[in-house]
Protein 1
Amino acid sequence: MTSRKIEILVGLFVAAAIAAFFMLAMSVSNMSSYGAGDSYEIKARFDNIGGLKVRSPVAAGGVTIGRVTEIQYNSDTYEAVVSMTIEEQYNKFPVDTAASILTSGLLGEQFVGFEPGAEEDFLKNGDVIDLTQSALVLEQIIGQFLYSQSDDEKTE
Amino acid sequence: MSDILVKIRDLHFSRGDRKIFDGLSLDIPRKGITAIMGPSGTGKTTLLKLIGGQLTPDQGTIEVDGLNVHQLSTRKLFELRQRMGMLFQSGALLTDLSVFENVAYPLREHTKLSDAMIRHLVLLKLNAVGLRGAADLMPSELSGGMSRRVALARAIALDPMMIMYDEPFTGQDPISKGVLVSLISELNSALNICSIVVSHDVPDTLSISDHVHFISAGKIVESGSPETLENSKSAWTLQFIHGDADGPVPFHYPANPILDDLYMDGK
Amino acid sequence: MFGGLIDRIQYIGAETLRSFQRLGRASVFLLEVIASCADLVLKPTLLIKQLYSVGVQTLIIIVVAGLFVGMVMALQSYYALVDFGAEDSVGVMVALSLLRELGPVVTALLFAGRAGSALTAEIGLMKATEQLSGMEMMAVNPMRRIVAPRFMAGVISMPLLATIFSAVGVLGAYVVVVQLLGLDSGAFWSQPQNKVDLYLDIYNGLIKSVAFGFVASWIAVFEGYDCIPTSEGLGQATTRTVVHSSLAILFMDFILTALMFSK
């Protein structure tokens, strides 16, 4: 086997591996949602984040506009502080935008949903959202439901 | 420049519990063919590896061209080895390279010669061993004798000051053996270098050597020119030269008297 | 009987010491190999030749294995998930299993069996036929010319092969689920795109395969270089390469998985 032929075959091998990597990165993983473009950071404080995780999506109107980058607990205010990266193209959220932790489907993963407000000013890099709604914890809902049921029975 | 190329002093070497050399001292002159002979298992090949610096002695020194082989840094040792050629028993050709590339290998590794120059040199060396026509063959297509001749061409590629031959005649048919014998002798006189031949093939080796050393049990038994050794008074030397079955080297491995062994159960 | 016990204990002690000695020798050997790898920048031809015999020649078995592993996994997860109406998740299930575990691990096991044993046999045979000794006597360091290119080729080939394995596996799953079982193609691709993370899953899978390639190549070249140069010793060395590499790969996979995905 000539060295030219070997070099060509090795070249093909490496090219095939690179092609395979791009196929995995582009069409199997969430790389496209990282976006190559710029982004800005927003923080939000929640009483309870439920099952939210780093890299959970941030959505507005059902469209993914960013991702959760960091979750911390502030032991002074007893609140969870969630940092999110939002793509630069979605930079027109009013400052009174509300953030709530929602669940996709009954048992699906949790994400942060944005509900735009009505103010003139827009959220900038580093701003903090104050209007938040915590995650609905299934056990609490069931507990509340049973409690209200028993209350109803009593009043009747 | 001294006449002695290889100077071995009080060499001790053992493999595991087995002592191979026990205070061996030897001088090998700068010119001519020196034969080192002895029965199988006396460590003749080991001696070559010690000279080449592939093994380290337990005690004693080996000097090649005034340099103590085992005190050299790796770089210096490699520089020294470029001036040594070694012909292995199997030829040790690189099996994934053609005959031509095998001979060109040391030139490509150690010189910056142009391709045309290398081609020129390789063909000359191959011509010297009579295998210019086999340049494009692969080592697997060569007979044992041809492999050794290619290896010989490779060993002389860098024009060394000495060539070590490890059992060059073993397992060769009479014709290949004759070719190798005359090649070794002719190359040595043409290049005017030092050749060290390790062998137990008595008549062929004696016919071409200038100096002969017999080794047994880790020591030199007798040294001299081939003529003096043929007329040696030593019973051991005579037994080795003539290949007698019994003598100072007994036919029987040390054992109890045979009658004791045979009638053991009847005791 | 008491003597037998003492013999047994002595034997275990001697074997333990021998294993440590071998490990020490292998570590020193590894350092030498890594130190010799710098040379390859000057002689890329040597590396390319080895990439061919280590990488390209292993490609066929990797592609075929990847295709069938992907197809089988797709079938199995389809039948398991269809009862819950969750067959849309077949894509993400296959993709995650391949990228995180099966891609690196199965590729590494096949690599140890195909390329690793061949490396050991080749280097061992060169030792047995005095080629390594011959090179040393030609003032050529066999570490640089023989061992380092093969080791590097192994380390480079493994992530490439694992990537191809995973990609082919996902394609195999696609063929089974979408073409044969009639699942919607959009559903097959959209779930992985949501759940598979470029960094956490793909990059960590690549890091795993580099680590496996490193260990498998190390074991293969060491066993070859260190073997007893007889046909029996060579056979034993080749067997040891496959067994030790496979065990090392599985053990390391556990450790790396625990480190990477523990959150």
Protein 2
Amino acid sequence: MNPNSRLAARFAALKAENRPALVSYVTAGDPDMATSQRILDGLPGTGVDVIELGMPFSDPMADGPAIQKAALRALKEGQTQAKTLEMVRAFREKDTTTPIVLMGYYNPIYRYGVERFLTDAARAGVDGLIVVDIPPEHDDELCQPAAQHGIDFIRLATPTTDAKRLPKVLGNASGFVYYVSVAGVTGGSAPTPEKLERSVSQLREHTQLPIAVGFGIRTPEQAAIIGRFSDAVVVGSALVDCIEQAATPDEAVKGVHDLARELAQSVRDCREVREPQVS
Amino acid sequence: MNQSAIQPDINGLFGQFGGRFVAETLMPLILELQAEYDTAKDDPEFQRQLAYFQSDYVGRPNPLYFAERLTEHFGGAKIYLKREELNHTGAHKINNCIGQVLLAKRMGKKRIIAETGAGMHGVATATVAARFGLPCVIYMGSTDIERQQPNVFRMKLLGAEVIPVTSGTGTLKDAMNEALRDWVTNVDDTFYIIGTVAGPHPYPAMVRDFQAVIGHETRAQMQEKEGRLPDSLVACIGGGSNAMGLFHPFLNDASVEMIGVEAGGKGVESGQHAASLNGGAPGVLHGNRTYLLQDEDGQIIDAHSISAGLDYPGIGPEHAWLHEQGRVEYVSATDDEALEAFQTCCRLEGIIPALETAHALAEVAKRAPNLPSDHLMVVNLSGRGDKDMMSVAHYLGEKFK
């Protein structure tokens, strides 16, 4: 991990507080760019620690219905890669400490041009990338170039990633490791906490990086349970659903921020009556 | 240049195209599939089984037929049709499905999934799943379900569950997205039978190898009939499996010209087409880098074709590579040209071709008249057109009244 990065600083601070991070996901430009900017700008105030901002793609193969629809709403309103970077730049005028990780698929980056994208992303204030369709076998495509621009490349580890493969997956990983709780798409159901805890502790044997858990976490209760043994809890589809269900832009902003606030409170409280952090 | 021997490389790359651009959840499985396929390829027992099913179940070898009336009609090249439409299930698709289902059994998989456009791959998959006693789920775009009703019913008769996909425009690419989502969710017990020479490595190479039986037979049959190699090969291209199957065994024969025909829809200049090479740009989708129909922002654009089987915004990565190498010439035929060729073939040869295949025949109509009578041209008659009756009746409209 880039030791001077916002991600490193944020995770170090949280470790000192002995609490997990809340990582929120929303799609850039959903339901439209102006509303999305309001949602984004308000997230740190709700207690979100790390922001994942989705780069909408027409064919999101790894996403369930909620995030598929979010991408389509954003694209319909004319969202582009350039506009997504513009949103980050505008956010950075007000907030210089909350890490932003862009999440999405390779093609829109490839089409934008990898070097040009990384240059513009670094300048806008992007801290990391999660690109689901580039496995470590293709690290030369984006992961290694990103490192040269000081942008962390966050790797996904999954239930199908066995111990033999983990070193390859983690080899060039930086920022944090995203443990995908279930084999499946986003927005599905999470496995039992016992099983997850075992998976996370196995993962710890292979990496010093903070471990985030995501896929299928929807409620403050779930976030609290998973936050006891992980370094970060990622919530996406449940927040995106607030946008879909909103009748007006104001409702969308309020819906996302209200849920984020509840989730943030739960990760702050989750270890209080527990033994100290193990790591 | 010995192209066929070196491609793809160890990462599944044909030049810059191909690769394994999939989510981590699928990576271990794809590596396992590759290892299993590498072993099976050299296993005489696997090859014996494959040959048995190709002959006694699929009905291979199918004829290389001299199309005398088409030849007379165009008054140029001597036209042969490779009769893939005579295979069991009526298209070349089953060549690949038989191979993949044998691999699925070998790997102990309990469930088969597939995507389909025109329904020919869905029918072929449902067929082999029935034969091997495996439950089968087929993803099909809702638009395609509408225009390919007979095939939907066939799949159901064969015991498959057909799941309509409404996302996007409800065509082949959306069906493929949904099949990938199923696969990533049921990764332990499910085998995904991809129907064309696309997707993550090893699919493009594996499907090519299973389809190469088309070219190998053609080579032997032409030798028997004419005592030499053909001069040109013509095939239609959606993902490109029937074309790759015919072309691949001839890639090292410099004298053999190869022409791939993309679906030009309403014309490449209209923007409403499915011609990825002639009207697209390199990008990454569905596990591989290849030419894609996409906008300036890298969003995939919906393809358009009268033929559901060609209605896909990408193309197999090896075709993208052969295109850049200049080894194969890629052209396009419009909906109207395909419909015209469709009727010509029906009336002159008594063969009702698939609308997909009609695109290849449309290129023959342009090319054959200008060639000498000793030019040997092989057209891959990749599928039969029974499934297209309703679409064709609809397009020809008044003529049928």
Protein 3
Amino acid sequence: MSGTITKVSGPLVVAEGLADANVSDVVRVGTQRLIGEILNMTGDKASIQVYEETSGLGPGAAVVTTGMPMSVELGPGMLDNIYDGIQRPLPEMRALSGDSITRGTDVPALNREKKWDFVPVAKPGDKVRTGDVLGTVQETSAILHKIMVPHGVAGEVVSVESGEHVVTDVIAVVRDDKGKEHELTMLQRWPVRIARPYERKYVPSRPMNSGQRIIDTLFPIAKGGTAAVPGPFGSGKTVVQHQLAKWSDVDIVIYIGCGERGNEMTDVLMEFPELNDPRNGEPLMKRTVLIANTSDMPVAAREASIYTGITIAEYFRDMGYDVAVLADSTSRWAEALREMSGRLEEMPGEEGYPAYLASRLAQFYERAGVVECLGSDERQGSVTAIGAVSPPGGDISEPVSQATMRIVKVFWALDSSLAYARHFPAINWLTSYSLYLDTLAPWYTEQFGEGYMLNRTKTMHILQEESELQEIVRLVGQDALSPADRLTMETAKMIREDFLQQNAFVDEDAYSSYAKQYRLLGMVLTYDELCREALDKGADMNALFAIDAREKIGRAKMADPDAFEAAYDEIEAQMKKEIEEVIAGGEDA
Amino acid sequence: MIKEYKTIREIASPLMVVEHVEGVTYDELGEIELPNGEVRRCKVLEVEGDRAVVQLFESAQGINLAESKVRFLGHPQQLAVSEDMLGRVFNGMGMPIDGGPAILADAHMDINGLPMNPAARAYPAEFIQTGVSTIDGLNTLVRGQKLPIFSGSGLPHAALAAQIARQARVLGDNETFAVVFAAIGITFEESEYFINDFRRTGAIDRTVVFSNLANDPAVERIATPRVALTAAEYLAFEKDMQVLVILTDITNYAEALREVSAAKKEVPGRRGYPGYLYTDLATLYERAGRRQGKKGSITMIPILTMPEDDKTHPIPDLTGYITEGQIILSRDLHRKGIVPPVDVLPSLSRLKDKGIGEGKTREDHSGTMNQLFAAYSRGKDAKELMTILGEAALSEDDKLFAKFADEFEKRYVSQGNTTNRSIEETLDLGWDLLKILPRRELKRIKPEFIEKYLPEA
């Protein structure tokens, strides 16, 4: 089925003679066979968004539909790889066409020549249904890739292969109840705009450990949850996203660089193979899939990149893995949507964004969740979706931030004034929130006892009080405060500087275990408690603030992650002793 | 055989509609021949059936619908590149205007370039010493970075950019260096300031100038940075040179873009700028960088004047989201006579962490940098409190921080436009200032470095 171009305007192409094509079909445009997707049809005229630069394209050129919606290839070979927005592998494109991305490059997403060692799980004669595991492939040293019965297939296993195979080899034959035999390969396809099905969905109840103190202790996110990181430029959105990609205790990370800087993707590409997962010691890249549509790459593919990423995430979720999707930045995705909408001459909604912006965003985030996967073994998997938002001028009253806030459950608001003072991560503790606290509290209590959540409540209280006291200080100076209030200010400062601040670029500090976070915060709060008692006993406030242990607490976060317990015991002992000395000194005087 | 059309139907500068065309493609370059023989340039913005909408690069004045001829050249706008471009001056479209001979092209390159494959990029990590403390010490520039200067009308951004161009060097390195300078809608005087500075220091022989001045056609400005970056790409990746690109002023560029967008009756985004301003700017800025296996690099310093000094205006805002940091100039500091008036707190270099430290600058760089930032921030807060409540309201520590902030501005920031400080001098000066503060407050620096570097009080 072939049509002819009648109009070209940037990434939008109109072609006639496509009466048989379907909306959302992928088409190949012009002699260079550029990849595009049909957005609208009027009669036999199709409006097509082209995922590559359209320069040099003109009326008369041919458009051929593939008859298939925009799909991704799923199977072994995705991990440890970097794709563009429509799942073309960038290293292979480079080998084919050099340092720049040239047009019409056609590379399959999964390597057709690489052999994988397929280990069968199912046996001939087994009854299988969609989602059942046929066999496994050790895809990378970190991840066991499960080859599942694709959607719409069920029946009896007739034969199953083992050993070295490429992804397109038949590895099993399944006969359905009508007697039809299905030849199954390790490669499946799935249309990106449709969520992959599951058995049932659950409310998230386990936290995702990120190793970031302000996140894990104050504003935790659940596995299967959704979060947004909004912030003006320079407030550290990307560093937060990178930290989550590095340290989150999930099995698989899908990192979508959506309309962001090329060098940031290069950074991940270079750094992740060098860094090891603190849990299994394997290089982080072995569990990571990168999707890169940098800001200079064609804008239409940016819109697709988010869907490509989340579909791959769902596929790994269906194997029973915990997956995190990090999208940086959803604002660029929304702008791509706006650009195409404008070219289609649709009636604009707020700030020129299309009226369906909010529903598209909701559809994306709703694909996160904890599910029981399809298949007989009742395995569970999760997709956690975390999107960065880049509001113009840092003002979150704009449509993308507002639409996002209505959907996500965790909100880590980045603050430029914290960033200017080099307080990182610059997550504002007063405006951020997590709606998972109630569902996660039982888990924390079970693991660490009542103390963890009590500490959290106390910490938030002190920080809140500090902001009120600051108002007073700004008006009348701090001499007007009572010693107890001065102590609150002092403790809040310690919480901010000694606990919340975390340096992503220092090895000892980049990742904090729950145990270390708990002890570190406990130490600060113990100081507060002891000083409060001491003040009641009439101890000298300034002497309490000046004890030597304070500097040690300040450096305590740098303690060796494997041997911090002993060091913290020592600091606490010293702190108690010094506070007692101050009390005694006060009584002597 | 190139066809000529005499079918111009409509001209509404800067757009023009040509009918009954055949085989015309999107983004193609065209030529308009006026009855008097004058030739002007245009490019195809949209083609629908046999009707092409083209954008003029120059004024529409004198174009006659009946008599003017249009030719489409079958390719997008190209630049003839060669090493002989060094030392020459071109107009905003890449034509020589210095009276010299035409360039004997080594190649013709599409001025739009191609997106760089992220898998082919090499991460910028080589420290560039600019000799400016606020940049070297606090917002370190590395080779292949794009670091804009956010300025305002009347602020001395030109002096700072010229100082960087003059002083920048990579330590222990003697590779070939080149400057590509693109004047985008700036005044003759400002352009001459740069050119004279290059001339005075002898850098002019290593410089390619593309000049679209304030009285040149505004629409041509859309091509100027692309032409300049094409030359830079050629020098960096074909000729292995270390290229510094200065683009000034991006605000004029964005305004030209808005003009064309409005003429096309596109749905405007914020403040009338087109919704694709981000993408458009990104296709310029992202052309900076390094590539694996290539010796050369493109380091970019775009300059933009923030309308009303407002950082949230779409031009600086979108720029900040694309570039790897920003150097912000402050009117307050300028009034105080601080030269260069770099506002260090909101300034940032995102790539500094990979370019500093042992083997690159010095082991204590990272810690002292963070400490200086934090201390200056606290010092400024203290000073603010002091203006409201008086000095007596400050604690002893805060008084020290306030003193630190003053000294920092006076000694560290204000170094003048001719002082070229080595990185050691910059770091030592930082330590000398930290001496003002109580030692227990130096929490961001490893104790062993405090032992080693902190001068005796």
Protein 4
Amino acid sequence: MSDAKFFAKGKAAELRLELTSDKKDKNYVRRKTALKRIVANMTMNNNEMIQLFPDVLDCIKLDSLEIKKMCFLYLINYCRLKPDLANKALPVLLDDLRDRSPLIRALSLRTVSCIPLPAFNEALVDPLGRLLRDPDPYVRKTAAFGVAKLWASDAPLVEKSGLIEGVNQLLVDSNPTVVSAGLAALTDITDKSEGMKLAIGYQDASKLVQILGDCNEWSQTYILSALMAYTPQDPAEALLMAERLSPRLQHSNASVVLGTIRVILYLTHYISDDSAIQGLVKRFGPPLVTLLSKPHEIQYVALRNCFLILQQYPQILQNDIKVFFCKYNDPIYIKVTKLEIIFLLASEDNIKEILRELREYASEIDVQFVRKAVRAIGKLAIKINTAARDCIDTLLDLVATRVSYIVQEATVVIKNIFRKYPNKYESIISVLCKNLDSLDEPEAKAAMVWIIGQYADRIENSDELLDEFLFTFKEETIEVQLALLTATVKLFIQRPAKGQELVLQVLKWSTEETDNPDLRDRGYMYWRLLSSASGNADITRQVVMSEKPAISVESDKLDVRTLEELSLNIGSLSSIYLKPVSQIFKGTKARHLEQSPALRRSDSNFESPGFYPNYTAANYFSTNGGDLLSE
Amino acid sequence: MLSAILLYNQKGEVLISRIYRDGLRRSISDLFRIQVISNTDVRSPVLTLGTTTFCHVKHENIYIVAVSRQNADVALIFEFLYKIVALGRAYFGKLDEEAIKNNFTLIYELLDEVMDFGYPQNTETDTLKMYIMTEGVRSEIRAEESRKITMQATGAMSWRRDDIKYRRNEVFVDVFEDVNLLMSATGTVLRADVAGQIILRAFLSGMPECKFGLNDRLLIDQPDDGNSKSKRAAKAAAGSVTLEDCQFHQCVRLGRFDADRTISFIPPDGEFELMKYRATENINLPFTVHVLVNEIGRTKVEYQVAVKATFGAKLFATNVVLKIPTPLNTASVTTHVTQGKAKYEPSENAINWKISRFTGGSEYVFSGEAELLSSMTKHKTWSRPPVAMQFSLMMFTSSGLLVRYLKVFEKSNYSSVKWVRYVVRAGSYEIRF
């Protein structure tokens, strides 16, 4: 058993000779070997293998299952490139569809339906209708997927053939695996079809829940996906269904667990009894935590979905915050998601414990993670009023490490703390001023400049500090330039004598020596304000030093609509990115709640999200780990 | 659902490429190689480029990759990828580059069988082995035979054949517990829990109906009133354990469990994981560790580590290793231990203190010093990773769980022998300092 040697580049001519030579070939050993080399070369993308098309097809007729399987594999791979030649294999395949052995019938069916060529599609319609009613369940199940494949390749052909009706019949099949295959096929088709929609009534949904226990894990997931097509008409009906599904939460397959949660969450929209809903969602907690003992990738999926579910029902894991503490060896993607969950679950009761934990993370190696930990500390000060002092102390402790990126991150969040609690913690400004040299990122610079401008009258040497920043004004990013402009004007208003010289210089730069329209406009606006209101400094002060809108961390939360759509997609890729499906996968049908007398939807759920004028407090946590590329 | 399964070696060469859905270019394999395998900073196992998503797991020296072009069930994808690993183990002992290259045609056959149109099908080894076999034993399967196989593959009990016979009917029950600990520098337990699994190796004839009993009191559905803590403690004293949650193999009847908490099932043949559980209350920590680390200036770190076994003197733990981290600029290390051996491993930035046999009740001490290089470059603070401990301890459970009974009923009424074994291992057993 050392087939590894076949992974060497082969020559087509040489292999053809092996396949076609009429020397004795007992048990087809020679041809088997040649075909193995061809399959290996095909895997390595050796395009020379395409030349062997007729020779490989000739082997299909040989009486050996092993050879046949290799030929089929070859055919599926290259059929598109040689459609005319491929058609020659059709008679053998169609013949196999009538083989006595159900395994052969299914194998041949799987192969034919994989080949998206018109001749194959058309030749398959009639046999497929027959195989949907095959006496063998294994063949019927394969036929169900066959219809879905055929539809993907030629939808009109299938829709006029009556095959969809045939799959529909499978939903009352006596074999649970066949039922689930039928559902999977129909779900696959209707997810993409313009005109068709899957709808399941209560009686059928009820039967599906009943056969769940007789299906293998994968079939269970297909049934769970299909149950999303059931629209409860009555709250009691929805509740009963949810109750009957909940034992599935104990399944060891993460997809079954998350699929069950998805369906139950969907059903809660149709249940009127709030305490019953609380009872149902409370059962999600333990199974979700148990998924955290699975392999890392599955833990990651579980965590992303925890984060999603906790947005709506934070109470289900409120007391389990410790399970989200990072292990030293957790991969970065797990640590980042855990951090987001910890932030979400933070409250007055556990804040001390959390701060100790975050302080620990801030000393780790991964720069991006450390930054997120520091930001989280700052945001906690804003989220939990009573903890502000503790958070600030922790931040100052971190600033003292003088690690550049920690200081910068801390500067940014401290600015927001000043915004939230004006005139309360200014005593720490002096600490920040000691670390000006380590600021080299625009966001941190802009934050520091804002602080200097805002508290220009309290910082003894504010003019000198600003002057230092202004030295490189022209090289700065627009973000920093705007901040410098505003800060200089603030300085001038609060300490006219010290700011006069600087403000003239900056206004000149901003209006006459810049190409950026934003900067120029703002420059002109200040200029006009300062010159026209010379006799009325109070007005200028009112405008420039006006009271800021309050900031909060609520803007990090997903809005109600997105949350609702995501909760209907629990366990799917969109739950990893926490973005609406349509933003990631264009052309995918969005899931939404079907109308029904039982549907609870108070309009208050859909007030427009609040107005958050602050442009830096939002989006501290990028939701996708920076991996998402849009088209 | 899935569009393709790809297997790569570490160099990024494709070992297996099975495409299930139309619409993928053949160059798709290059995309993953460039974006993930050649990338030194991969921050997620899921990568979406345009509308194509790659989900991957790394196993041994290979990458197993699923390609999808829609909003697929990502939990299902990873469960399936790990199922491929399990199948590889069951068929070839392990799934690495060598095994794949040596069995690539068989793997293609398996991939054709376990997935259709990107939907996972029957993945039970027991059934698959009936008709997909390693070379040498393969014979063409007769039609009657194949009918039996198809019934098995689509049946309600796809995990078991009905013609199994053993002369001696035996079941081995292994209770494995991974105890996780996170202790703060001040010695408070930040987190302690147990992730347990119960592995059965069932060698039973026919279609045995099994009932399994533990000393558990499930927490679920209990009203969470103020004094529940004290109740649980009382229960622990009375010899029962509180499991936070359980998850079962698909053979267990979940409806029954939900109704009356009985674990009943017809097992697959051979080894399988019957259940997983989690416990967080009254955890018995087999070892307590005290760590003292002093950084003396920039050139020296002093260590003092004491570890004590809290279990009874009749038991002993094996393979005990404490991994004591050292700064990156460590030049040399001196150690002194009262038991076992301590060795500095520069490549791991740690001192490994090994004690091959650790008797219950005893306490051992490590003391040492690390001399540091005073480098010219800017002094970077040491992140002080936690001390991590490994061990394995037989006939002890940290959760207090015990197997009460395992009853086997079969229509031929044979008697069967049952064996139970308990092992506690360190999961992530970490002590900060």
